[in-house]
Design a protein that fits this description.
10-stranded antiparallel sheet, 4-stranded parallel sheet, 8 helices, 16 strands, globular
């Protein structure tokens, strides 16, 4: 089954039809367009129930995440065709950036039955493939999703603008916003936290933003938190996550590698994102590693 999101940044009817024609040459194919948020999740579950061998998500990271909800803990493989603006998951595992080239790439894997069983993360009942954030990065995602110009060109610069605004206003503080507990460690207070199942967290054009530079799909979850943000800290955060990768050693930061669980209790409702999608405000939350959970075509 090919699940296409017609509202994604670089999805077009013409490209979808070219992809469908190419896949139909070798495989029995159903093509379905999503009509609403979380529709891809329902379609993927229908594909599992109907006995499909693979479900291919054509859209951005949000579409990929929705499809993953339906195939995690099954043996129906997930394929990714990049159709969004950033396409973090596709790029992080080396899938070609052009959707037509990616179709040829996936078709070869399907013919050979080449897939890899990977770990995923879970926040509450929501699975994530590469990241979950509580606080600052989720606030940025929330602002981007609320921006009426979010589908226009220059999305990366718009994302950076919202990141600088959030970091220099509500998150420029030394006051902790939550208590965080990471498996194997004592509880501590912090300002925000980002959990990664793989790297990078995102891209700015071709530059990877590495919040958790040691994260890997074959290992446990990595988590980075920062206890305070001052005005001089903001350019330092940008430089470190894009260039120096020094932030895991900062005195006001905490970095955890290869863990299986974490939980938080917020002092006020905090925004949460999974795989770049805002999922609301939360006072409490549990994060867990789900091992060997998903067959991925790559």
């Amino acid at each position: 089954m090919l699940i296409s999101n017609p509202r994604a940044g670089s999805v077009s009817t013409r490209t979808r039809d070219v992809i469908a024609k190419a896949l139909s040459a070798d495989f029995k194919l159903d093509v379905v367009d999503t009509a609403r948020r979380d529709h891809a999740q329902d379609l993927a579950r229908d594909a599992v129930d109907a006995g499909f061998d693979a479900v291919i998500a054509f859209g951005g990271d949000g579409t990929v995440n929705e499809v993953a909800q339906g195939v995690v803990k099954t043996h129906v493989a997930l394929g990714i065709l990049p159709g969004g603006t950033t396409n973090v998951m596709a790029r992080s595992v080396g899938i070609p950036s052009d959707p037509v080239d990616a179709t040829s790439f996936l078709a070869g894997r399907l013919r050979r039955g080449s897939k890899k069983r990977i770990n995923v993360g879970r926040f509450g009942e929501r699975y994530f493939l590469f990241s979950c954030g509580i606080g600052l990065d989720a606030e940025v995602v929330r602002r981007v999703e609320a921006d009426p110009r979010r589908y226009e060109s220059g999305r990366e610069w718009r994302f950076l603008k919202h990141a600088l605004t959030a970091g220099s206003t509500v998150y420029r503080t030394t006051v902790p916003k939550m208590k965080l507990v990471v498996e194997g460690d004592e509880p501590f207070e912090t300002l925000f936290a980002i959990c990664c199942n793989s790297r990078p967290l995102t891209f700015f054009k071709k530059m990877p933003m590495d919040v958790c530079p040691e994260a890997h799909l074959d290992e446990g979850l990595d988590l980075f938190s920062l206890s305070k943000v001052r005005a001089p800290t903001i350019p330092r955060i940008i430089w470190s996550t894009y260039v120096s990768r020094s932030h895991p050693r900062w005195r006001n930061g905490r970095y955890f590698h290869d863990r299986t669980a974490a939980s938080f209790e917020a002092y006020e409702p905090l925004p949460v994102q999974v795989d770049g999608d805002y999922i609301g405000q939360h006072l409490l939350g549990d994060i867990a590693l789900v091992k060997d959970a998903l067959d991925l075509l790559f």
